[in-house]
Design a protein that fits this description.
Blueprint: E1 9-10, H1 11-34, H2 45-68, H3 79-93, H4 96-113, E2 121-122, H5 124-141, H6 150-162, H7 168-185, H8 191-196, H9 201-218, E3 224-228, E4 231-235, E5 243-245, E6 264-271, H10 274-287, E7 288-296, E8 299-306, H11 309-319, E9 321-329, E10 348-356, H12 359-367, E11 371-374, H13 383-393, E12 395-401, H14 408-420, E13 424-427, H15 433-441, H16 449-461, E14 464-470, E15 475-477, E16 480-482, E17 487-491, E18 494-499, H17 502-514, E19 520-526, H18 532-544, E20 549-556, E21 562-566
Parallel strand pairs: 10-11, 10-12, 12-13, 19-20
Antiparallel strand pairs: 1-2, 3-4, 4-5, 6-8, 6-9, 7-8, 9-11, 14-17, 14-21, 15-16, 17-18, 19-21
Length: 567
């Protein structure tokens, strides 16, 4: 069905554009993934752009839905309502380097389009200003801008739009043409693109988004650029006239910004003040590369590639309150490679995806090679987040560790979804992070998949788990009635000890667990637990249980005061 063109840029145009952009990115997702070689050849740029735009669409649709319910049939959202929702949705859902930059582009546009909260719509001149501000703000968000990337494409789109004199359709088409030309030039600006014979993947995604903008205001679908083998072509769609754009071949440069880089991608949302974020930028810039910090008004999306994932998270903790933390371990050979070394879409053979309850354990798991999903207290991840983590792991075979009994069905649904995408997934029903640690300790990617899964399952099953927490309310338990504020000791999910002192309760729990035997005690200390707890417990093991070893980790804000594992 043909799209009815919009005359002005109003709330309905925002809704239409976001929906068309999502459709366009969905069509181009696999193609964009396949040409993703910069800044990391991990083959997920198209997916990240799609997921970021999907979050923006969800937020915009929610605003429209809110105006359609209730008595009196309220009027449609204002332009400010819609653009704020678009920018906020993209910010909180931004994925990867490319998605984070796209979120800032949308935020930059929203800052102009919503400058006057009462304006019902804007025209071509307003769109020109919005595109210019979007390009400038995206460039400012990147610590070290590189030409030949989506930033170059955005700047070219804004420059072309500035020269266009006319309505929104005229401006949008000029921006699209400028972006398309700039995209074709990216291999001449970045050696890694020239070697691989492709254009920039992020820039290719932006061209798709701008093509959707043209369709929003003209009802016409521009041809979609597809780039492989050192040349670009424009494919006709819905009656568009075919065209072609040559990409000039370039000799490889002797150096490239993406070669030999960090091993982890760290992304999180951050609630922090502007001054703290300025310090954070400096700290993260010293830790790694591909640093992009976008947002404002107290909410930020942070993206960086580092070797020390824990340090990147700790920097966020010092700046404010990080959450929705995602840490991805890049498989050896899948990142920072030249186009000649290996195909960018090659997957690792096997990966581990784990849900972890605290920042400290997130660092521990990533050091062990796992892709993690951070579960904040009271906010368990949805199956979609687990599916996305499986995709980010970029492997043919995935071992999934939910590390929480309550996530059993959620993890099973995620595993089933991933299997429909051709990924072999084994779900190990770990009920605690300490069981996940035991499973990771025996993980050997070189073994046959079934043998590795059996070994990890056996190690997890042989680990009894416990936690020490504070009761939030009065309730009945297996150990009797507890009051709010009581210290609870839970063994294998059931309350076994009710006490008033953290250390005394922890000692009682540990004694009960070791009464059945054990060779190794794992202690994971939460931020709110006294440091003396682990000292006392280590001493108790040394004095009362011969030949039992103890290992201690700091879990960060993990919900429980203390996690205990006995193998």
């Amino acid at each position: 069905m043909a799209q009815v063109p919009q005359t002005f840029f109003d709330a309905l145009a925002v809704r239409t554009w976001c929906g068309l952009a999502l459709t366009a990115l969905g069509r181009a997702r696999e193609e964009i993934d396949a040409i993703n070689v910069f800044p990391v050849a991990d083959g997920d740029t198209g997916t990240n752009l799609y997921l970021t735009m999907e979050s923006a669409v969800t937020a915009v649709e929610a605003v429209f839905a809110a105006h359609e319910v209730g008595p009196g049939a309220p009027e449609k959202p204002t332009l400010a309502d819609a653009t704020h929702a678009m920018a906020h949705g993209a910010l909180i859902g931004a994925q990867g380097n490319s998605g984070t930059i796209l979120a800032q582009l949308l935020r930059g546009m929203a800052q102009v389009l919503a400058a006057d909260g009462e304006t019902p719509h804007t025209d071509g001149s307003g769109l020109r200003l919005a595109l210019r501000h979007a390009a400038d703000s995206a460039r400012q968000a990147v610590a070290h801008p590189v030409e030949g990337t989506v930033l170059s494409v955005a700047s070219a789109a804004a420059a072309a739009a500035k020269e266009a004199d006319g309505d929104c359709g005229t401006v949008a088409r000029a921006a699209y043409e400028g972006a398309r030309t700039a995209l074709a030039a990216t291999p001449g600006q970045l050696a890694v693109l020239s070697r691989a014979g492709v254009v920039d993947a992020g820039g290719r995604g932006l061209v798709a988004v701008l093509a959707a903008l043209v369709e929003t205001f003209t009802g016409e679908t521009p041809g979609a650029i597809v780039v492989f083998g050192g040349h670009a072509r424009v494919e006709a769609d819905m009656g568009a006239s075919p065209d072609s754009v040559a990409v000039e071949e370039c000799a490889p440069a002797s150096d490239s910004p993406q070669e030999g880089g960090p091993a982890y991608e760290v992304i999180y949302l951050l609630e922090a003040e502007d001054t703290a974020v300025n310090r954070l930028r400096t700290r993260l810039d010293a830790l790694g590369d591909s640093l992009v910090v976008v947002g404002g008004d107290g909410l930020w999306n942070v993206h960086v590639h580092v070797d020390d994932a824990g340090a990147a998270v700790e920097a966020g903790v010092e700046a404010g309150r990080p959450y929705r933390i995602r840490i991805t371990h890049f498989g050896l050979g899948d990142v920072h490679t030249t186009g000649a070394e290996r195909p960018p879409r090659e997957r690792a053979q096997r990966a581990v995806v784990a849900v972890v309850p605290g920042e400290g354990l997130a660092g521990l798991y990533t050091e062990a090679g796992a892709t993690i999903v951070l579960a904040r207290p009271g906010e368990p991840p949805a199956s979609g987040e687990l599916v996305e983590a499986v995709r980010r792991a970029h492997a043919r075979e995935v071992v999934l560790l939910p590390n929480d009994a309550d996530l059993r069905h959620t993890a099973a649904a995620a595993a089933e979804q991933a299997r429909t995408e051709g990924i072999r997934v084994a779900l190990i029903p770990t009920r605690s992070a300490v069981q996940g640690i035991a499973a990771l300790a025996v993980h050997e990617p070189e073994r046959r998949f079934d043998e590795d899964v059996v070994s990890m399952t056996s190690a997890a099953g042989a680990t009894r788990y416990a936690e020490v927490a504070v009761a939030e309310r009065q309730s009945w338990t297996m150990a009797g009635i507890c009051q709010a504020g009581d210290v609870l000791g839970l063994i294998d999910g059931d309350v076994a000890v009710i006490g008033s002192d953290v250390t005394t309760t922890a000692e009682a729990v540990l004694d009960r667990m070791l009464s059945a035997g054990g060779e190794l005690v794992t202690l994971v200390l939460g931020d709110e637990a006294p440091d003396s707890v682990t000292t006392r417990l280590e001493a108790r093991v040394r004095e009362g249980y011969l030949a039992v070893d103890t290992v201690v980790y700091r879990g960060g804000r993990q919900g429980a005061l203390l996690l205990i594992g006995v193998e």
